[in-house]
Amino acid sequence: MPEYKYLIIGGGMTADAAVKGIRVVDAEGSLGLIGAEKDPPYDRPPLTKGLWKGKDFESIWRGTQDESVELHLGSRVEQIDPEAGTVTDEKGTEYSYEKLLLATGGTPRRLPFGGDSVIYYRRVEDYRRLQVLAQSEATFAVIGGGFIGSEITAALAMNERDVAMIFPESGVGALQFPAELSTFLNQYYEEHGVTVVPGATVEAIEGGHGHVHVVTDAGVLHVDAVVAGIGIQPNTELAEASGLEVEDGVVVQPTLQTSDPNIYAAGDVARFYNPALDRKMRVEHEDNANTMGEMAGRSMAGETISYDHLPYFYSDLFELGYEAVGDLDPELEIVSDWAEPFKKGLVYYLKDGRVRGVLLWDVWGKVDQARTLIADSGPFTEADLIGRIAAE
Fold first, then answer.
1. Nearest to residue 259, comparing CAs of 82, 14, 19, 107?
2. In sequence order, which residues have a C-beta less than 8 Å from that of residue 266 and are 6 or more positions away?
3. C-alpha closest to that of 168 among 195, 192, 202, 139
4. Residue 22: its H or E element
5. pLDDT in tens, 146-187
6. Looking at the predicted structure, is the pLDDT value of residue 207 above 90?
7. Which stretch of DSSP H or E encloses residue 42?
8. How many Å apart are CA 304 and CA 253, to the nearest integer?
9. What is the pLDDT of residues 329-368, one digit of tens each?
10. Which of 16, 74, 141, 291 has the fewest CB neighbours in a 10 Å radius?
11. What pairing do the DSSP bridges indicate for beta strands 202-208 and 211-216?
C-alpha cells in the first residue's frame, strides 16, 4: 500500500498549486497525487485562449513532477475510508494518508443526445481532438453562449473556421453582462464571421463522422463537428459517499478543511464563505484554483490560514478582453461607465447601495481596486462610481 503524509485526489491546476503550497511549508513529507487524466497537471485557460493564438503547446505543463511528488495518473479513486485514512482506486489499489485533499473539479454537463459526436470542451484531450478538426476544412457548431462557448467560438473563428454559436439566451454572455453589452456582442461576433443563433434550444443532434445535423427550435444546422460548453457539475460523489457536508460543492471552513478535519477541499469542487460578499460561493476559474489550491496545501502542512480571497476571472473575445470580480448578475442594479461604449469601460453591479461585482472591460490591472470597492459597505450612488476607477 502506498503510504503518504499528504495525498491529493485530482490532477488539475488546483492539485498542482496544492503540491507547491505543501512544499513551501514541508519540503520532505511524503506526497502523492492521483489524477484521472493520463496527462500531468497543466494550465487550462490556454485551451480556449493562447494555444489558438500561437502559444507553444509545451508551455501549458506546470512541472508538478519536479516537486518531489509521486504521480498516479490515469487512475480514478472510487472510495474514501475516512476512519482508516485510506482511498481505493478502480484497480483496487489502496493508498493511505494523514491529510487528504479533494481537488476533484467538475464534469461537463452533457446533452441527452449526440453521444461522442459532441466535444464537451474541458481537457487537453479535447483540445487535441478539436485542433485536428480545425486544421481541416471542418465546419462547427458551438452550443453555449457563456464563458467557454464564447471563448472557443472566438478561437475557431480567428483560425478562419466556419462556426455557428447556439444558445438559449438573448445574447452572448447574457447571464453575466447587461443587456446592451450582450446585444452588442451578438453583432460583434457576426462581424467576425460567426453565425449567431440566440434564443435557440438544441432539441437533437443527429448523424456523425463529419455529417452532423444540429436540430434546434429555430431550424437545423448542418456541420462537421459540435462543441458544447454548457457548464459543469462539481464532482462531489466521493465526498457524499464519505459523509462529508455537501451543498453545491464540498463545504469547507476558512482553513479549507471539510467536515472531516483530515480532509480538505479546494478549487471548482469547494464551496466556501467569502466575507466581502457575505455569502457562500463556489468558483470555477483559474485564480481561485491557483490561490485556493496553494492555501489548501499550506493548511494541510500545518500553516494557519484563513481563505478570504475574492477570486477574479478574465476572458479574451477576439480583440476584446476583460477582467471581472464579484457577482456579475445582470438582474442587479447596473451602473455603466464607458470611456468608449462597449469597447473600453467599467460596469458596476450593485445591491442595496453596495457594489457586488465589477466588470473591467478592456481595463487592466484594476482588480484590487475593484475588490476594495466590493469590500466597502458604501452606500454608493451612480455619481459616486462614475470615474472612480479610471478606464485606462
1. 82
2. 14, 17, 18, 101, 102, 103, 252, 256, 289, 292, 293, 295, 296
3. 202
4. helix 13-25
5. 999 999 999 999 999 999 999 999 999 999 999 999 999 999
6. no
7. none
8. 12
9. 999 999 999 999 999 999 999 999 999 999 999 999 999 9
10. 74
11. antiparallel
Instruction: Band the pLDDT of 223: cuts 50, 70, 90.
Output: very high
Dihedral sign computed on CA atoms, order 267, 271, 275, 276: positive
Grid look-up 459526436 returns 117
- pLDDT tens digit string along 224-283? 999 999 999 999 999 999 999 999 999 999 999 999 999 999 999 999 999 999 999 999
- Given its phi and psi angles, is residue 78 left (phi above 0), alpha (psi -120 to 50 degrees) or beta? alpha
How many CB atoms lie under 10 A from the CB of residue 338? 15
- Cell numbers describing residue 328: 456579475
- Which one, of 280, 318, 69, lies nearest residue 193 by Cα? 318
Would residue 233 be called left, alpha or beta, if left means φ above 0 and alpha means ψ between -120 and 50 degrees?
A: beta
Question: Which of 240, 136, 120, 145 lies closest to 196, judged by CA?
Answer: 145
**What type of residue is 81?**
D
Mapped to the 3 state alphabet, what secondary structure does 352-374 carry? CCEEEEEEEECCCCCHHHHHHHH
Report all structural domains of the chain as residue ranges with CATH numbers, in order of start: 3-107+232-300 (3.50.50.60), 110-228 (3.50.50.60), 319-385 (3.30.390.30)
Specify the amino acid at residue 115.
G
Q: Are 73 and 251 in contact (CB under 8 A)?
A: no
Amino acid occupying residue 49 = K
- The distance of Cα 187 from the centroid of its chain, to the nearest Å, equals 26
Distance, in Å, from the CA atom of 384 to the CA atom of 254, rounded to the nearest integer, reads 33
Residue 235's nearest CA partner among 107, 101, 110 is 107
Strand partners, 197: 166
For 114, the 3-state DSSP assignment is coil
